[in-house]
């Protein structure tokens, strides 16, 4: 797949990135290099390779899920500009 200048301009517009017209050829070439690298990665045989969670092998600590209130409601609400009855109070936005 090849990216031309008009496609690069469309991608920039969709990403809401302002790109000057004189920079479009370089942007299109960058996109083409990225796509070329992705094509190289697709050629690698990964059959039987386990997915990694990190570059260093380690086991994640596991714990039982326990639902609680966190025990810090007063501290959290102390940061609120307006709190009532143990909840954040916000202005009404729907009539």
Outline of this structure?
The protein has 95 residues and is mostly helical. A hairpin with a 2-residue loop joins strand 1 (83-84) and strand 2 (87-88).
What shape does the CA trace take? flat
Major pleated sheet? 2 strands, antiparallel
CATH class of the domain at 5-42: Mainly Alpha
- Helical proportion? 25-40%
User: Uncertain runs with pLDDT below 50, 5 residues or more?
Assistant: none
Q: Which second-level CATH architecture of the domain at 5-42 applies?
A: Orthogonal Bundle
Describe the structure.
It catalyses: L-glutamyl-tRNA(Gln) + L-glutamine + ATP + H2O = L-glutaminyl-tRNA(Gln) + L-glutamate + ADP + phosphate + H(+); L-aspartyl-tRNA(Asn) + L-glutamine + ATP + H2O = L-asparaginyl-tRNA(Asn) + L-glutamate + ADP + phosphate + 2 H(+). Keywords: ATP-binding, Ligase, Nucleotide-binding, Protein biosynthesis. The structure is a single chain. 37% of the residues lie in helices and 4% in strands. It is mainly alpha-helical and 95 residues long. It has a domain at 5-42: Histone, subunit A (Orthogonal Bundle), CATH 1.10.20. A two-stranded antiparallel sheet has the order 1-2. The longest helix has 19 residues, at 24-42. It is flat.
What is the strand and helix layout of this fold?
Elements: H1 5-14, H2 24-42, H3 73-78, E1 83-84, E2 87-88
Antiparallel strand pairs: 1-2
Helix pairs in contact: 1-2
Enzyme class: ligase
Keywords: ATP-binding, Ligase, Nucleotide-binding, Protein biosynthesis
Subunit structure: Heterotrimer of A, B and C subunits.
């Amino acid at each position: 797949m090849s990216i031309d200048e008009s496609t690069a301009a469309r991608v920039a517009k969709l990403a809401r990135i302002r790109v000057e017209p004189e920079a479009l050829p370089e942007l299109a070439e960058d996109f083409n290099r990225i796509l070329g690298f992705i094509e190289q990665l697709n050629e690698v045989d990964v059959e039987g390779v386990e997915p990694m969670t990190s570059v260093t092998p380690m086991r994640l600590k596991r714990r039982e899920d326990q639902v609680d209130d966190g025990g810090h409601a007063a501290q959290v609400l102390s940061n609120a500009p307006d709190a009532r009855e143990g909840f954040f109070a916000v202005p009404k936005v729907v009539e």
